Amino acid sequence: GAVVSQHPSRVICKSGTSVKIECRSLDFQATTMFWYRQFPKQSLMLMATSNEGSKATYEQGVEKDKFLINHASLTLSTLTVTSAHPEDSSFYICSALSGGFGANEKLFFGSGTQLSVL
Amino acid sequence: GESVGLHLPTLSVQEGDNSIINCAYSNSASDYFIWYKQESGKGPQFIIDIRSNMDKRQGQRVTVLLNKTVKHLSLQIAATQPGDSAVYFCAERSRGSARQLTFGSGTQLTVLP
Asked: Does B99 sit within 8 Å of A108, measured CB to CB?
């Protein structure tokens, strides 16, 4: 089946630094990717929708200047957490839409990135 | 706002028994539902999906039932195995939305030996 690779799987950084997370669709092209955030023992919360070649659409309450999303190609989207603070520590998960719109579309998830900000 | 929720936060079953995980949704505009399995420290893994024009769909050891009248979704796992222990999320997508999913709160399934 389709594979989505997310890297790194775990990152520890100092407060004030920036962290980039990559999400790649390995065997399909994804014009649309999604970024989620998950706190311990909670559900996935959608942060933003990333569209190839255009600006990302952010959910209410998500700071677009803090969580920079770039979707420059059909197989790669990146999320950069700028000036990270301890409250940004979380599990970040990307997903990619395969098959376009319609009956054949499927959503595949990356393995997640555990961000710990000291 | 609209929400997708689960009835039980935890479920413990004996190995070999059948498991039933329930989910209630409130958005009547939802037309597509998915069940995901998430193991600790990993991303969600697709289990099975169902569209709103169906009321039942079967996979390997899993069955999803959809009752649109009461806005209820369930996941049945036959002959539950230790490897089935994980958190299970239902997710729904609204008709005409930008394809993003709304996730329920999750159920922790524990399989007892």
From this structure: no
